[in-house]
Amino acid sequence: MTGTSIAWAPLVPLWLVALLGALGLLLVGYALFRRARGAWLRLAGLAVLVLALLNPSLVEEQRSAIKDVAVIVVDQSPSQNIGERRARTERAVAALQERLAREEDLEVRIVRTADAAGPEGAAVEETRLLEAMTRALADVPRRRIAGAVLVTDGQVHDVKDVLPTLEGFGPVHALLSGEKQEGDRRLAVVQAPSFGLVDKPVTFTVRVDDLPGREGGNAIVTLRQDGGAPEPFRVPVGQDVPLTMTLNHGGLNVFELAVDAGPQELTLANNKAAVVVNGVRDRLRVLLVSGEPHAGERTWRNLLKADPSVDLVHFTILRPPEKQDGTPIRELSLIAFPIRELFEQKLEEFDLIIFDRYKRRGVISNTYLANIADYVERGGAFLEASGPTFATPLSLFRTPLGTVLPAEPTGDVVERPFTPAVSELGRRHPVTAGLTSREDGTGDWGRWFRQIDIAPTRGSVVMNGADGRPLLVLDRVGEGRVAQLASDHIWLWSRGFEAGGPQAELLRRLAHWLMKEPELEENDLRATVDGNRITVTRRSLEPDTRPVEVTSPSDARSTVTLEDHKDGTATGTVLATEPGIWRIGDGERTALAVVGAVNPPELADVRTSPDPLAPVSKATGGGAYWLADYSTSDPIPDIRRTRPDRDSAGRGWLGLRANGDYVVTGVNQVPLLPGVLVLLLAVGLLLAAWRREGR
Fold this sequence. Notes:
It comes from Aerophototrophica crusticola. This is Glutamine amidotransferase domain-containing protein. Keywords: Membrane, Transmembrane, Transmembrane helix. This protein is an alpha/beta fold. It contains 13 helices and 37 strands. Strand 31 and strand 32 form a beta hairpin. Helix 2 runs antiparallel to helix 13 (675-694).
């Protein structure tokens, strides 16, 4: 391949050539005006001299053609799984490869958007098709780009971001994989709170649309909290409607919304929506009753007062009723002990009740203690921290509260140093799991010096003390929970004795477990979402590696095997291939995982349409074609190579630009006006002009 051109290499600066030429032209022009003889010959001589100064030469280039580059971008987003879209897409890609392979001057690249089901784990909220296209051609100069063919359903969400960068890119065509005139019903969450108060109502605003633009009629929307029973609501189509539910617990509350199928449906995936609301307790009310003043009393008070969301009511019994020392009552307390108000009228208002070294003294009657036992049975939380009197006939176990305590005293009190240790079961219980990594369950903790010997009758022993005796016992009683700590020396850790211990974390977990915080459930199934990866965690007191069943938003089912970590948890990972609500179950419990935004763009409109890509087609000269218009044997429009200055799209055909780019491998340069020839021509013409003037 060769190319010929004329090159100019002036012997003097161009401004000087222009000046001399202008002066010569001025003189010759005056001669022509006077009709002097030989003026035309002088003009010819002047032209020869100017050309000689410009030094023209004939350049012959040896050229090597460079292939143009075209890219085929394959949409693998979740909406491509609807109907025949995936099959049409694959047929079109195969036909494009076969057809473009015949073009010897064209390099074809195929790029597929990251598949959410693949190892790369694509985002599932939106389709970033143009970003994949520009990345595929990032190393190619614009003068070599022949164009791009996008095989998609048209729902592309990065047009505004990429469109300004497409100048000189070449034609971008869209092959649409769906059907014309599609219709669909969708459910959208217009407004939803991110948090709310426990036991208080929260309001969602939802909207049901029948696309394209159909209004009128009603639809049934069901709202379900944490997998519970659905509550139906009748809502008008095409209008924003508020729905109200009550938060049942603290932590994450998952609300599922679903609408019945519409008159036209492409997918039921966008007939569902999910909202995660973080339940926050307004104020935690804790009642702390200390049976007598002692060194560890302040440990409980400091722990509870450190949390600004805790309202603490604390009473210390300074003197039993039977003690008569002449001290006036007004000097023993600032206010009278409101026994009836606390243990009868307002008992249900407390989230947690703590008895610290309490013994039977006649201050709180058995009737009120029975009220506390009933409070626990109905869902309350009770913590008993034992003192030495728990081993005596004055023990709290000998009262109606003994019916809810999981361990009874043996009558012995151990008074010797020991280091608390997490039990084998405690290593799996969320209250004590992870406090230490040692095999014997101990840590770099300080010693305690007193323990009340107890015999558990039920519950879970999560910590042991002297000689392996039970130290901390947890139990569920009716709807409530009880914890029993068989020592009053945890305050030594808070004082930093012998380096102290994890008392703050232990007591925090203990209080939260008693108040039923979901993250501290000992037998639970949970799912957390990071991008499009779902981590399934099953917590159990016994090793349990049974596989769990995973149900996608489109009702596809699969199983995941969990790996036990010997700390009470077994985990597995699921790669989410579509946005929406994923349901995980093991036959006993169910967990929900919400992948993507509340209203993911990928599901906002799943109808096939050329409209989102219309600005790209207009800016680049491309076109949009419906694959449904073509047969299985001939699945794509005709493809032509067009010049850059010609149209690149037409009825039934699409064009890819033929740029004709090349690299020069060699150059041969020949002067057009050799010096001798120029001299002879100039002198000859001047002599001829002189001779003509002399006649």
